C-alpha cells in the first residue's frame, strides 16, 4: 500500500510525462503508467515520418521508464474515440469558416475522460499529466487551474475546458518547476536521451504540419468544390480568386498568392459565399467578442462586468477586459483593441494567475 494512493500517469514517452511519473513514484505514490494511442499516422497520408506521441519509439520509451522503476505500464488505444470527435470537429470547424483548437478539445473531451475512466477501473485515486500548470483547491472548495512557474512553458490556456470532477482528481507536478530543472531531472534519473529529445508543437494527427493537405485528403473533392472563390475587400469588391475558404485563417498574411504592394491580411471568412475578406493590419483590430460553450473554473458564477485578463490564443500575453453575461454567452469588452480574434479559437480569462474559465470565440466586433 502506497503512502499517498494510486495515480494513473499519462506517459507519452517524452521528457515531461516521464519525469512526472518518476517524481510521483519517488514521492510515494503507487504509479501506473498509461500511453494513449490517439492516431494512426499511416492513415493521415502525410509525407513526414512518424514523430511525437503516437509512434512505437515513444511507446517503448514510456514502457522502459516504467520497467526501470518497477511500476506497471499499459497502452490504451483511443483512436476511435479520438477520431470520431476531435478530428471530425477539426474538419467541420474549418468547413464552417472557423479556426479550431484540437488540443483544447482533446484535453477536455477525450484524454482526461479516458484517463478518469481507466483510473476508476484500476482503482486509482488520481490522474496525472506532464502539463505545465498548477491545480489546487480554492477556499470556496472549487478546484482551480493556475499558470505554471515557467511562463515560457505555461499550458493553463489549453486546460480551460476541464470540469470540476476532473480537476478534483488531477495532479500536475511540473507546474512548480522550470523546464531547465525538468531537463536536469531527466539527466539525474539516467535518461539523457530524453533531456535532449526535441519537442513537437504540431497537431498530433497532422504530422507534416500541413493542415490544408490534411483537409484535402480527408474531404474528397474539397479543393475542386471550393476553388475559385473570391477574395474581396471590406467594401465587398472582388479583388482576386482564392483556393477555397477553409485553407485560410484570420490574420494570415503569407501564402495568399496575391500582391498589393503592401502587407495584406485575411480579416474575415464567409463559408456561405466562399469569400475571404482581405484588409490592412488595422482591419484586424477589434475590442469586443462573443464567446460561447463556457466552462467556469474558479467560481461557479462571475459578477457581470468583472475585470479579467483575457487571452485569445496560446502565446497571447492577454489584455485587460470586462466580462458581461447574456443568454448563455459571454461578451468580452477589451480596454484596448486586439488583433486577430479568430472564431473557433479559445478565449481564456484570468484573475491574476488563476483561470476563471474559458470558452470558444463565436465572433469579434469593433465598437466605437
Please give the structural blueprint.
Layout: E1 6-10, H1 15-26, E2 30-37, H2 56-69, E3 73-77, H3 79-95, H4 102-121, E4 126-128, E5 134-137, E6 143-146, H5 164-167, E7 170-171, H6 179-188, H7 192-195, H8 211-218, H9 222-226, E8 230-232, E9 238-241, E10 265-270, E11 275-279, E12 285-296, E13 306-311, E14 319-326, E15 329-339, E16 346-351, E17 354-365
Parallel strand pairs: 1-2, 1-4, 2-3, 4-7, 8-11
Antiparallel strand pairs: 5-6, 8-9, 10-11, 12-15, 12-17, 13-14, 13-16, 14-15, 16-17
Task: Give an overview of the whole structure.
With 368 residues, the chain is α/β, with parallel strands linked by helices. 26% of the residues lie in helices and 28% in strands. It has 9 helices and 17 strands. The chain has helices spanning 15-26, 56-69, 79-95, 102-121, 164-167, 179-188, 192-195, 211-218, 222-226, and strands at 6-10, 30-37, 73-77, 126-128, 134-137, 143-146, 170-171, 230-232, 238-241, 265-270, 275-279, 285-296, 306-311, 319-326, 329-339, 346-351, 354-365. The strands form 4 sheets. It has a 6-stranded antiparallel barrel. A 5-stranded parallel β-sheet has the order 3-2-1-4-7, sandwiched between helices. The chain has a 4-stranded mixed β-sheet with strand order 9-8-11-10, with no helix packed on it. A hairpin with a 5-residue loop joins strand 5 and strand 6. Helix 1 runs parallel beside helix 2 and helix 3 (79-95) runs antiparallel to helix 4. It is globular. The model is unreliable at 47-52 (pLDDT under 50).
